[in-house]
Design brief:
Elements (H helix, E strand, L loop, with lengths): L5 E7 L2 E7 L13 H11 L4 H13 L10 E3 L6 E3 L12 H22 L15 E2 L6 E2 L2 H8 L9 H15 L14
Antiparallel strand pairs: 1-2, 3-4, 5-6
């Protein structure tokens, strides 16, 4: 709950100036009452003198001043001060949005702590590749899994059933098109 700045008039040897003094910021997290509790107290003390307010101040804090048959006057779950519930179903638990936010923050903090106890933080798993199964840092390198070895080798070794047929095919292509990957024009001059 923020308090509005007040103004103070100062006089110095015939000069009059007005300064704005910033009041301290109060928060329900620091143990101060929420806005609903302040509204209830303002309704009760409206029109009372300061002596009367002083007499009933302790009764206001412990709740004995309020009518016990009034079901709308409750104790806030967060700040602990009494307030009047203005909701239609009379089901609110906190006196103000600040208290509700603070109580939700506490609930979330407890939930995180519970989760940290039940599920310790695990390192994210690295994606497994076939190359991870190959150990070559020892004197003799080896594969952990034969499947990984075959999967890795298929990228580099072709599965030609008849290697001689493949060699004959490549030679025929070389005679038709020439060496390398370039195709040679069969019409007119060769490039």
């Amino acid at each position: 709950m923020a308090v509005a700045p007040s103004q103070q008039i100062t006089r110095q040897k015939g000069k009059c100036s007005m300064q704005t003094i910033q009041a301290p910021q109060y928060s329900v997290k620091d143990g101060y009452p929420g806005s609903g509790a302040i509204q209830l107290v303002n309704q009760v003390i409206k029109g009372m003198s300061s002596a009367e307010i002083f007499e009933i101040s302790l009764n206001l804090l412990d709740g004995s001043y309020y009518d016990s048959t009034d079901k709308r006057i409750k104790k806030c779950d967060y700040c602990g001060y009494y307030w009047r519930d203005d909701s239609r179903n009379n089901t609110k638990k906190t006196c103000s949005p600040e208290c509700k936010t603070a109580i939700k923050s506490l609930q979330k903090q407890k939930q995180r702590e519970r989760k940290a106890l039940l599920e310790p933080e695990q390192k994210p798993k690295k994606r497994h590749t076939t190359r991870d199964d190959y150990y070559d840092f020892l004197e003799y390198s080896y594969w952990l899994s034969e499947d990984s070895m075959h999967m890795y080798d298929t990228n580099y070794i072709s599965d030609a059933e008849e290697p001689l047929e493949l060699i004959d095919y490549v030679d025929a292509q070389d005679q038709t098109y020439g060496k390398g990957n370039r195709k040679v024009s069969t019409y007119g001059d060769e490039i």
